[in-house]
Specification:
The complex is a heterodimer of chains A (418) and B (252). Chain A is α/β, with parallel strands linked by helices. Chain A has helices at 3-17, 88-100, 117-133, 151-160, 173-179, 185-208, 233-247, 275-290, 295-298, 312-319, 333-336, 344-353, 361-367, 371-374, 392-402; strands at 47-48, 54-55, 57-61, 106-110, 140-144, 163-165, 220-226, 251-256, 326-327, 378-379. In chain A, strand 4, helix 3 (117-133) and strand 5 form a beta-alpha-beta unit. Chain B has helices at 10-22, 51-64, 67-78, 85-97, 109-131, 153-163, 209-224, 233-239; strands spanning 2-6, 28-32, 43-46, 135-136, 142-146, 169-173, 178-182, 187-190. Classes of the chains: A alpha/beta (418), B alpha/beta (252). Chain B: This is TIGR03915 family putative DNA repair protein.
Chain lengths: 418, 252
């Protein structure tokens, strides 16, 4: 092995892959039944980079040669950068050796598009196949579905990979047309649609026959870039919601645009990464997936943007003061989940604990409720509760005055352009 | 107040519970033998761990708690946290004194504390599953040293055994001076004598040739995936507290 050459390739191809934010290694039930190497189950973050993001998978491009010229991408055809390509064996060796040392949960393999979609996809699938069949590798494999790849290849990919993903890149088709003239959304949606049906089909088969092969057990995900085009939060979340509903996606990732290229269509190079906005979008995403919120409750035509100062659940609560106060000793779980400062676990604990006796502030604090936010919205077994007739805006001011945002230094307001 | 001294084992804890009920004690202060400092005017009883009695208590506990609940209690005890023995025995007594299962009574201070302890232990276990860094030795064994906050090695067996079924490995707890060794069939507890080589890092000479290359590649990879314009040191350190760095290949 030529260590120097491999190091150089790894640097180039890891650097080019890092803007893909998906890092999840959970959701697959692949077991180590063949006395081989590895298993995939709960998902483990093995390390964290200095920007605080988790390192769970060996995330690399097979190559950064690309025939496309997407404005937001470092690997675009017209960008003058060093190009490199791994061989199939090199990727396999790196994956196995990193995995054996407990550096990673598995492989996340993406690629620039060389020649055409099928040619590229075929290479990706070949690596996954080799790992699974020749090396008895049961770790996590996440493959990119190359837009426009054939159904046959997608089917084979599903048999070896745990998760597949196509990046929508831009929340709307107009945004995509502007920045990635070579791509079209229909090409991206086609493999997604095929996989959705194939996953359902294989699940049904698995119910009937225990020996039926597993097919992309960790499902599909996608990513949209935030802040490169002028879409508002409402458009972003509506589009995410559409894909959750219609394609059974496991995750939509939101990637704050990191200015890497000078282009008149893009924000200038010294623009800050919209990290707060990204964080708020993830919070909103969680509300949709775990807290029973409908997308229209979080953003709508009156509220096209998420409030950057406060989290979207608090935002919803102060717009809907008629729903409060909630009595934590009586209200049903769905309503307790809507109280700002109460998380999923706390809500479940409250519902379990109140069977044994009524809960007071002290109990709630011990359970883990953020009292400083929740106190305006709940009553419990105590004479102390918020008696003033506060407006939503009052509450927001009180909460902001008593808590310090971890983003205080980077607070930036988002302007409505239209 | 009676002070009970016990040996720190789970059986010892259960024996102490037996004594409490046998002698109808009310307020007790349970302390591990080594941690006890003598106080005046105190009644002190030393608990002699008794397998039969411990088994009886465990059997009774199983009728009061779910299998998961017993496991959680075991994990909380295993952690060997200081000054928590009274919370453990408080939890057990509360379980025995109630008619129904109290595992989810988060209004009770013992239940809340044990659930916090379990969370701390589980987090440490999960961290070890993430932060163990194996180094390949010449004889193809993969070696890792760790220094976990709590005694979590026994909780790691299942995970590492099923994951690395086809390689021999050692995970060694330097703080508590014992380790796990998997020989391709089973795991066993071992103690290593580093006296001759002084430090485990002197094992360097025993590393396989390719080990250095892969460590180098991993460090490079780790640096390449960082996005400088998103630097967030606070978050970084919250995720990987500094005390773990010395065993992390990418942070050395």
């Amino acid at each position: 092995m030529d260590a120097e050459r491999i190091t150089e390739k790894l640097n180039i191809l890891a650097d080019a892959a890092k803007y893909d934010v998906s890092c999840s290694s959970s959701g697959s039930k692949r077991k180590n039944e063949n006395k081989g190497l590895g298993n995939a189950s709960n998902g483990i973050c093995h390390s964290y980079t200095e920007d605080g993001r988790c390192v769970s998978l060996l995330k690399i491009l097979l190559t950064n040669h690309c025939i496309f010229d997407c404005a937001y991408c470092v690997s675009r055809k017209s960008n003058d950068i060093k190009r490199a390509a791994f061989t199939v064996q090199e990727v396999v060796d790196l994956t196995i050796n990193f995995y054996r040392r407990n550096y990673i949960e598995g492989l996340f393999l993406s690629s620039g598009i060389f020649k055409d979609a099928d040619y590229t996809m075929e290479r990706l699938v070949r690596i996954a196949k080799k790992l699974r069949t020749e090396h008895k590798f049961n770790g996590y494999i996440h493959l990119k579905s190359i837009p426009g790849a054939s159904d046959e290849l997608m089917n084979e990919a599903g048999l070896y990979a745990d998760r597949l993903s196509v990046n929508l890149e831009m929340p709307t088709e107009a945004g995509l047309k502007l920045l990635a003239p070579d791509k079209n959304q229909a090409d991206m949606i086609k493999p997604m649609g095929y996989l959705k049906d194939a996953i359902i089909l294989h699940k049904e088969e698995k119910k009937l026959f225990k020996k039926a092969p597993i097919f992309a057990p960790a499902g599909q995900s996608t990513q949209v870039i935030i802040g490169a085009t002028p879409e508002n939060d409402s458009e972003v979340l509506q589009s995410a919601n559409y894909f959750y509903k219609n394609f059974n996606l496991k995750r939509v990732y939101y990637s704050g645009y990191v200015p890497v290229l000078a282009d008149s269509r893009l924000p200038t190079l010294n623009t800050a990464v919209p990290m707060v906005r990204e964080n708020r979008l993830y919070q909103a995403d969680w509300l949709m997936r775990f807290y029973g919120f409908k997308v229209n409750e979080i953003v709508n035509t009156q509220q096209p943007h998420l409030d950057l100062d406060i989290d979207p659940k608090l935002g919803w609560a102060i717009r809907n003061m008629q729903a409060f106060p909630v009595d934590v000793n009586k209200a049903d779980l769905q309503m307790i989940l809507r109280v700002p400062g109460v998380g999923l676990l706390s809500a479940q604990k409250i519902v379990s604990a109140r069977k044994f006796g009524k809960l007071n502030w002290d109990h709630l604090k011990k359970i883990g409720v953020a009292i400083n936010r929740a106190k305006y919205f709940i009553v419990c077994q105590s004479n102390e509760f918020e008696r003033r007739d506060l407006t939503g805006n009052n509450i927001k001011q009180f909460i902001l005055a008593t808590s310090q945002s971890k983003y205080i230094k980077s607070t930036q307001s988002q302007l409505s352009l239209f | 107040m009676t002070t009970l001294l016990y040996d720190g084992s789970f059986e010892g804890l259960l024996t102490a519970v037996f004594e409490v009920y046998e002698h109808k004690m009310d307020a007790v202060n349970l302390v591990k033998t080594g941690k006890y400092t003598t106080a005046m005017f105190e009644q002190v009883i030393t608990i002699v761990t008794d397998e039969a009695r411990a088994t009886r208590v465990l059997k009774g506990l199983k009728t009061k708690l779910s299998p998961m609940g017993v496991q959680r209690l075991y994990a909380a005890h295993l952690a060997e946290m200081d000054d928590e023995d009274n919370n453990l025995i408080g939890f057990i007594r509360y379980a025995f004194n109630s008619d129904k299962n109290i595992e989810e009574d988060y209004g009770n201070r013992f239940v809340v504390r044990v659930s916090e302890m379990v969370r701390m232990v589980r987090r440490e276990k999960h961290r070890m599953e993430a932060f163990v860094r194996f180094q390949k030795l010449k004889d193809e064994t993969f070696y890792a040293s760790v220094e976990p906050d709590f005694n979590v090695l026994p909780l790691l067996i299942r995970h590492f055994k099923s994951r690395y079924a086809d390689q021999r490995w050692i995970i060694y707890d330097l703080k508590r001076n014992y380790g796990l060794y998997y020989d391709l069939h089973d795991t066993q507890y071992i103690t290593l004598d580093f006296a001759e080589s002084n430090k485990p890092s002197d094992l360097m000479t025993a590393f396989s040739e390719e080990e250095g290359i892969y460590q180098h590649l991993w460090k490079n990879y780790f640096n390449s995936v960082n996005i400088k314009s998103r630097k967030n040191t606070k978050l970084h350190i919250r995720h990987i507290p500094k005390r773990y760095w010395k065993h992390l290949t990418e942070k050395i």
